[in-house]
Each structure stands twice: as C-alpha cells, then as structure tokens.
Write a structure and sequence with these properties.
Structural class: alpha/beta
Number of helices: 8
Strand order of the largest sheet: 5-4-3-6
Helix content: 40-55%
Strand content: 5-15%
Order of helices and strands: EEHEHEHEHEHHHH
Shape: globular
Number of strands: 6
Largest sheet: 4 strands, parallel
Radius of gyration: 17 Å
C-alpha cells in the first residue's frame, strides 16, 4: 500500500482538510469494522489494514432476514484481496435493532474478540432520502458503539480519498448496487448506483466497475433525481 496512508491529513479538491489522525487514532491496538463491501467500507478496510496491521483488523458482516446476500458474502471477497483473514459473519444483527441492542452486541463482541474501536462506513446520503447526517442520527450511531469517520463526507469525497491515499485500484473491489450482486455489475438504476456514478462525475473520473447501462445515462438519471429533490 502507498505511504500516503501514513500521512496525518489530506486535502480534498474543494480545499476541505480530512484529518486521518483524528479519525483513526494511533493509540488503538486492534480494531473492528462493520462491512457491506461498498465504497466506504472497502476503503475503511484498506485504511484500517494499513494503519493498524492486517492481523489487527476484525471484519464483521451482518446477516439477517431481508438483507441482500452479497452484503454478507462480498466482504469476505474484499478481505481476501486485502489480506485480512479475520472475517466474521454476525447472524444476530438486525436492521431494526435499537441503539441499546446494538450497544449490547458491541459489548459482547468486544469482550469476545478484544478490540478497541468499532468502525462503520456510514456517509452523507444525497440520493436515498435518508439524512444520516442529521445531528440526532449521528449521535444515535455513535451511541451504538461505532466510530463513523466518513459520516460528514459525500460520496465524491470518499471516492477521492482512494486517489489521495494512492489506492484507486481498490475501487474496483467495491460494489454499491442494491439490486444485483457483484458478478452482474451495477444495475445503474437504483439510488446507490446513482450516488456512486454521480460521485465519480463530480470528480471528473469514470468508475472502473461495470454498469448494465452506459454510465453517461446513469449520471443523467442521477442529475434528474437531484433536481426532483431540490
């Protein structure tokens, strides 16, 4: 991995400074990550492996009724590519769990696996209609035991981090689509595909992964979605 991972901060194209030391404390010994295999969690796995060592990263992927199966299986593939050996499916997770339930799960896992910090790739949503950056929502996520280093970043910023940290080749490991698994590519029609394609568009770059429809068309649909929400 590139030595840019060892830097204390990087600067986005809009001049915003992202403090790596603040978001990824150097005093942590062992860390955990809740992973779906999307842009954010794949980047987090990369950063954590570099900053804390591959053997000191535990990757959890939740399994529950109604969850897309590849959100549990794709993290194992990404971990293998990154050399992270400790991938742990967690069948007791549930997207309806309360903050207290999540905290109890966090505490049990922490005792069992002995890690210091638990990371989550939640980021600012532009297309989903779910405002995760509402202060109350952010506070709730943190009370669940997670560190959320990307929570104030838009998709284009997390994508730019791959380039700033000299890891753009790892983008192709990630999969964002909510409608079909990685081997079928991105559908280009769901809100996650729109958000992903729009992020690359803002940066003036092309997504190295495949879409079932031309990326230019995906971007047009994404722009239309933005206009409809304004």
């Amino acid at each position: 991995m590139g030595r840019r991972m060892g830097e204390s901060s990087v600067t986005f194209k809009d001049g915003t400074v992202y403090d790596l030391e603040e978001n990824f404390p150097s005093d942590a010994r062992r860390v955990a990550l809740s992973m779906s295999g999307g842009v954010e969690s794949t980047l987090l796995a990369c950063i954590l492996a570099e900053r804390y060592g591959k053997d000191n990263v535990l990757v959890f992927s939740g399994q529950y009724e109604g969850r897309r199966w590849w959100e549990s299986s794709h993290p194992a593939f990404v971990c293998k590519q990154l050399g992270i050996k400790q991938h742990i499916p967690v069948p007791q997770t549930n997207h309806h769990m309360s903050p207290s339930d999540n905290w109890a799960m966090f505490s049990r896992a922490r005792q069992l696996y002995n890690f210091d910090l638990w990371f989550n790739g939640t980021n600012a949503k532009l297309f989903s209609g779910c405002n995760v950056t509402d202060p109350d929502t952010v506070e709730r996520i943190k009370k669940q035991g997670y560190r959320v280093p990307f929570v104030w970043l838009e998709k284009w910023q997390t994508i730019e981090l791959y380039y700033l940290l000299k890891q753009p080749h790892l983008i192709q490991l990630s999969h964002s689509c909510t409608e079909q698994p990685p081997e079928q590519g991105h559908c280009g029609k769901c809100y996650c595909c729109h958000e992903r394609a729009w992020g690359f568009h803002v940066l003036g770059k092309k997504d190295p992964t495949t879409y079932c429809i031309p990326q230019e068309q995906v971007i047009l649909e994404a722009e239309k979605s933005i206009q409809e929400t304004v």
